[in-house]
Design a protein that fits this description.
alpha/beta, Alpha-Beta Plaits, Rossmann fold, Immunoglobulin-like, 3 domains, seven-stranded antiparallel β-sheet, globular, disordered N terminus, disordered C terminus
Length: 551
């Protein structure tokens, strides 16, 4: 019996962590702050004593201040830079003040600061795929990831495993910054110096080295719920590293943005998180929260429009309501609404269905991890990061696409399920990663675009040229210069080739120039070839000091 005690203890620990992960949020912020509901919208909760107001363009500040004084409200903060204000109002008068402000010609709209929360997700039984993958990561739990071969991810990985130049922002409970599956994938703000207490890059966030925590208002958006970490793992876990699982995109970086605390958060924080992600270079913004009571928010629509205008693809779960209700933010314009499928390519039973559903992805029994745990969860919130990861793969093949084009490629290549054509259960169909990356016109990018060699007797120097976006099978590199040799490209993403100078093929001392031509092997390409200039300076060793003599 004593030998079984550690096993029983481990099982109990797993069950406790799993239960904690799936508990739904009941309030909106850190601590016991009050909430109330909007009777016009039933169960929609909002933060007491706060409202959000959008003033019309070109309104003088004097007019705004006069209106606020007349209504006995004050400014708590500005959300973005387009006239969206968070206002403090007397508790219990939120709806009254909203109606009064809406009557002013200065105001475009006014609404409560609605509550956002994590979806109520459910654990699921393991499932082991029997499909033979094209690319086999060595992650020990990969055999249980039916979802990846289910979307033809291994075949897509033959083209690209994802560039680290593509950033996925996960907006929700934060991300475990030091998790071994994520610590090398966390986005680093290139303009910020860690720990100096200065806003080095001038973005109004001090020491935001790895994202931002809008709940605690600091630069360490650590996940204390597990939800954001679980989502990040599905989209872009460190892959082929012998630990836990594989991600859809092996290379994409994760930008953690925490807008949900232990008991939820508010629209004001969520809006700030979306704006932060868009302003700091996120190409994909995965919204891992829902608005309580299926609330529509003009403010969230405004910031989503802003993110779209900045070139970001915004992705959200369609909802787990098992009915045809609109779930926000997924039902907003410029948001990719993702429904969930099971291992049989059928609709997951709780997946929300409506005319706003754009696409479907696996969401039933999806493996991932959180700090100190591993498990399987069923939810459209687990389907959404599959789409985010796929968008990262598409952008790796061609970084010059617009978000609308990326969404169009994903939809046009999806596997049609249910009724022929688009339907409310699956949208345009279940994503097909292989078809999507093959349909993406290849924009070949090899770095650097020039090489310089210093050559002397008995020296044959070499340099590496690197394709940052796609695998070794997608390109070749050739030259007509007899004194240059180029190895075959190797690696999944990035892939690279070695360029070497053969000193024995240089007839005499002097300066030699040549061109390497990197060429895409994919028939679907837009930047199909790229010249790389090569310069070799061949000198006797005794002349070398003269080359570096100070003037």
């Amino acid at each position: 019996m004593m030998k079984d005690a550690p096993i029983i203890k481990s099982i109990l620990h797993f069950l406790l962590v799993a239960l904690f992960l799936i508990l739904p949020c009941l309030a909106f912020a850190e601590g016991p702050q009050p909430t109330t509901t909007d009777p016009a919208w039933g169960t929609m909760e909002f933060k007491a004593g706060e409202i959000i107001v959008k003033f019309r363009e070109n309104i003088p500040q004097t007019g705004v201040q006069s209106l606020l004084r007349a209504e006995d409200v004050s400014i708590l903060g500005e959300i973005g830079n387009f006239g969206l204000l968070l206002l403090s109002v007397p508790q219990g008068q939120e709806l009254e003040k909203i109606e009064e402000l809406k009557r002013s010609p200065l105001v475009e709209y006014a609404e409560p600061n609605y509550i956002v929360q994590i979806a109520d997700t459910s654990m699921a039984e393991p499932y082991y795929s029997l499909r033979a993958p094209d690319v086999v990561p060595n992650d020990p739990s990969y055999p249980s990831q039916w979802n990846l071969p289910g979307i033809e991810a291994p075949a897509a990985w033959d083209i690209t495993t994802g560039s680290d130049k593509v950033i996925i922002a996960v907006i929700g409970t934060g991300v475990s910054l030091d998790h071994p599956e994520l610590q090398d994938k966390i986005w680093t703000n290139p303009g910020e110096i860690p720990g100096n207490g200065i806003d080095d890059d001038g973005n109004n966030f001090v020491d935001d080295v790895h994202g931002w925590d809008f709940v605690g208002w600091h630069g360490e958006p650590q996940d204390d719920r597990g939800h954001g970490t679980f989502v990040a793992g599905i989209a872009s876990a460190e892959t082929n590293n012998g630990i836990l699982i594989a991600g859809v995109s092996w290379g994409a970086e994760i930008m953690p943005v925490r807008v949900l605390g232990q008991s939820g958060g508010s629209i004001a924080d969520a809006d700030g998180g979306i704006i932060y992600a868009a302003d700091n270079g996120a190409k994909i913004i995965n919204l891992s929260f829902t608005l309580t009571g299926s609330a529509y928010s003009n403010a969230v629509q405004n910031v989503v429009n802003y993110a779209h205008s900045k070139g970001a693809l915004v992705v959200a779960a369609a909802g787990d309501s098992a009915d045809d209700s609109y779930q926000y933010p997924a039902a907003l314009n410029h948001v990719v609404s993702v429904a969930a499928t099971n291992r049989d390519d059928e609709r997951w039973s709780d997946s929300t269905y409506n005319d706003r559903v754009d696409i479907a992805a696996p969401g039933d029994g999806i493996p991932s991890f959180w700090e100190g745990g591993y498990g399987l969860i069923s939810s459209t919130h687990m389907a959404a990061p599959h789409v985010s990861g796929l968008a990262a793969l598409v952008w790796s093949v061609n970084p010059h696409l617009s978000p609308d084009r990326v969404e169009g490629i994903i939809q046009d290549t999806a596997v049609d399920l249910g009724e022929t054509g688009r339907d409310d259960y699956f949208g345009h169909g279940r994503i097909d990663a292989s078809a999507a990356v093959m349909a993406t016109p290849h924009y070949l990018q090899v770095e650097p675009d020039s090489l310089d060699f210093l050559v002397y007797d008995n020296n044959s120097p070499s340099e590496t040229i690197t394709n940052t976006g796609t695998s070794h099978s997608t390109w070749t590199a050739t030259t007509t210069a007899p004194w240059l040799s180029i190895s075959s490209p190797e690696g999944h993403t990035p892939s690279s080739a070695t360029v070497s100078v053969d000193v024995g093929s240089l007839p005499d001392y002097g300066v030699y120039t040549a061109t390497i031509t990197a060429t895409s092997t994919l028939t679907n390409c837009v930047n199909c070839s790229q010249p790389i200039t090569v310069t070799a300076v061949y000198r006797c060793r005794s002349y070398l000091p003269l080359l570096f003599k100070e003037s």
